[in-house]
Amino acid sequence: LQRLDLLTMEEASWAQEASSLPEQVRAVVDILAGKGSYASESLQTFIETTNSQLYLHITVYEPMVQKHLESLQSYYGNSLETGPLERLTNLLLVEGLTDIQQKEHDILQIEATKGLRNVSKSIPLEKLFLPLSKVSIPPRISVTIGVAGIGKSTLVKLFVYTWAKGEINRDIIFVLPLTFRELNTYEKLSAERLICLAFPHITEPNCISAGAARTLLILDGLDEFKTPLDFSNTVVCTDPKKEIQVDNLITNIIRGNLLQEASVWVTSRPTAASQIPGGLVDRMTEIRGFGAVEMQDFLDQIFFDNRDLSGQVLHHIRANRSLHVMCTVPGFCWIFGSSIGYYLKNCTDQSQEATAIPRTLSEIYSYYFKMALSSDWPEKPREALKIEQAVNNSKKIVGSLGRLAFYGLLKKKYVFYEQDMKVYGIDLSLLQSTLCSRLLLKEEVQSFTAYYFSHLTIQEFLAALYYYMAAKRAIFDLFTESGMSWPKLGFLNHFKSAVQRSLQAEDRHLDIFVRFLSGLLSPQVNKLLSGWLLVKDEHNSFRNQAISFLQGCLNTNYVISLRTVNTMHCLYEIQHMEIAKTVEEAMKNESLAGMLTPVNCSALAYLLQVSDICMEETNLSNCLTYNVCKSLLSQLLFCHNLKLDNNQFKDNVMELLGSVLSVKDCQIQKLR
């Protein structure tokens, strides 16, 4: 173009400074646009007579890119949530998954770590796919982790929309956002067919598969994928046109056998992310939860027309250490905040407020369920149902959705499709009801319709409600979906079966389900849901025996784990806290010496997480033996300030403590 006198040397140099060929083309076109028809005609002649990559970029790629940008701007501009999104613009830069993230349920992770990661490095969103230094290269495989409800999909939407507007990562030509919900609907695909099906306006997928245009492939929600990824038995495929099983397609893309030049960004809950071998991940980031100001802003947004109520809700959340920790996650903050707000609005007896404020998970979700039936729903209010209709509907919906939730939970299935609804006999017209639409969300895309519970814990609560109601009349093991099992009669036998299954489950996916199941036996929850879903005072027939069984699970010869702590949480849900209160009182009086039996050790491990006494300093002076110290190690590493004076420790205990300090999970900052 310089030789044709269409560009000066300065203009050509300026255009060449652009980071990629398409960017250079745009710069040149912008310059020529101001030079009249002669420049345009000369450029057209040059393009038509030159068989160059430039010809392809201007005639094929550039219109395709433009259409893609318009499509993403339209879709993601409309679906992006409003609210405090600043925390999503800066991610924590982490060195792989910790032991607790690989093994434990999301809620147990939050409770044990107090919602904090021992991480000092962060990375801005706009630098997520750039090299960390001048001598390093951009990451090919990036993984972003976060617990359920922390905002992984919102982060993806924010990134895609910001990129489509040209504000970040302009060197990336194609950003291809896909969800595992969508991938679940396919059995076999090739890499190129996947691109064409998901993005019909991309008519030349070979420019992506061949690496001609820098591409970022986003795979959102690995935890929702129907098939576990098996990297050890991947059938190698390097042909982008060959159709293979979808799980094999994903593993080949991540391994670099397909779309070798593309960057890949996977988002996932931590446990599911452990499927990807650490050696394949170039960069791992984590979404941080709310800080104090963000939590307040979020609650103000929920109660935008009543700031006084927002302040009261925040006060109650801050007064309960466990709830406050959970509310650092936006999904929990919404459920907890709106439920407590609903309680406060409907609490007429001021003296009742101090005692009946919802504190346990089961109480909060019971209020949430009642709120879903009422006209007090915070968003998009609809006409409230008549009380008789609401009661009948709620029983019918829990019977239908609860069964779906329970057997979905057993299969680790969190997304459902129309064929699933047919299998479980769910009337699709039922899903249009007010209550259903507040518990089960619907995602309708051109190629599929997906249903998913508004939060993982909503599925777990409905599953527990279904199990509780079914266990009273079931004669076979409810965990066997076919019904073919040894007879199992009586609610207590089914309760024991659920607790034992939870204790045996390798990935702890039943832990919160069992907490809810225990909570349904508490007097407060029975009072809340009697007449709706539960029979008044029926819990009295089972409660004491259930408590005895749970306490029996604690007597485990000084083997303390997060499962033991979860059993203590079950006792808290059922409102039996005598053991914990005794140990907490001894901690206050510094009189723990000689009383740390296996059961009391379990209570102590639980208190290390939830008690206000341990917030500033955990004082375990003059009370620990070698066995007790060894049993508590997995919990001690989450104490920030640990006081272990006068315990007459010998070398074997010092070696144990030394090993704890080198663990990746360790949050101990001060040790005496």
TrEMBL record:
Keyword Manganese among UniProt keywords: no
Keyword set, alphabetical order: ATP-binding, Cytoplasm, Leucine-rich repeat, Nucleotide-binding, Repeat
Family matches, as InterPro entries: DEATH-like_dom_sf, NACHT-assoc, NACHT_NTPase, NLR, NLRP_HD2, NOD1/2_WH, P-loop_NTPase
Domain NACHT: 140-272
Subcellular location: Cytoplasm
Domain of life: Eukaryota
SMART domains (UniProt xref): FISNA (SM01288)
GO cellular component: cytoplasm
GO MF terms, alphabetically ordered: ATP binding
Alphabetized SUPFAM superfamilies for the sequence: DEATH domain (SSF47986)
Gene3D superfamilies: P-loop containing nucleotide triphosphate hydrolases
Name of the molecule in the record: NLRC3 protein
Organism: Brachypteracias leptosomus
Gene giving rise to this polypeptide: Nlrc3_0
